[in-house]
């Protein structure tokens, strides 16, 4: 089974013991790959789109994984009972869709682990999931088709974070790699160019972009002292 670099990196966040639901499974190739890696892993894989689920059914049949991958049609966590899962995997969606899914408190009551790759608003995602009672356990940047994605694993618990850690990710700041410098160097250039184009009367926007420029520059060299994120 060959999958994209993005999906392969996501697979590194899953353990054999996880009681996993993959929400928005699409073609189910990641789920098939995971079952090939972990012989005792069983997965609930769901999608809200009937066409996508048909593709998933065909792939699961092809790789003879019907006894390992339970495919379900439906919206988010509505298609499971809370005692069926302790790990949630969501990838390739936007922040607000992910937020809606994770706001189902009843279905979330036994969840100990959340693995997310959001296509938008990663900073908002960190803030939201932390407020649900989770801490950031593991993070990784991965490049696929010239796009750099952020993958985050949250686990039950509390941890204090600085503003910079919420913006960049505490685990990413601990292990800055080439992708970190590539991604944020481009962001820095983007914000510097945008700052020149913002009219003087849009003071709030100018101050916001100046601050982003400041923390991106700082993130390449220093680490801020941790403070409670709830104070932000």
Protein traits:
elongated, disordered C terminus, Rossmann fold, 232 residues, 7-stranded mixed β-sheet, alpha/beta, 41% helix, single chain
Q: How large is the share of residues in beta strands?
A: 15-25%
Order of helices and strands: HEHEHEEHEHEEHHHH
State the total count of DSSP E strands: 7
Low-confidence stretches: 223-232
User: Remind me, CATH topology of the largest domain?
Assistant: Rossmann fold
Sketch the major β-sheet: 7 strands, mixed
CATH class of the largest domain reads Alpha Beta
Based on CA atoms alone, the radius of gyration comes out at 19 Å
Span of the ends, CA to CA: 44 Å
What class, by secondary structure content? alpha/beta
Please provide a written account of the structure.
This protein has 232 residues and is of the alpha/beta class. The protein folds into 2 domains: 5-159, 3-Layer(aba) Sandwich (Rossmann fold), CATH 3.40.50.150; 179-231. Helix content is 41%, strand content 21%. The protein is built from 9 helices and 7 strands. The chain has helices spanning 5-11, 29-37, 50-62, 95-102, 122-131, 163-168, 170-174, 178-197, 203-219; strands at residues 20-23, 43-47, 69-73, 87-93, 113-118, 134-144, 147-156. It has a 7-stranded mixed beta sheet with strand order 3-2-1-4-5-7-6, with helices on both faces. The longest helix is centred in the C-terminal third of the chain and has 20 residues, at 178-197. It is elongated. The model is unreliable at 223-232 (pLDDT under 50).
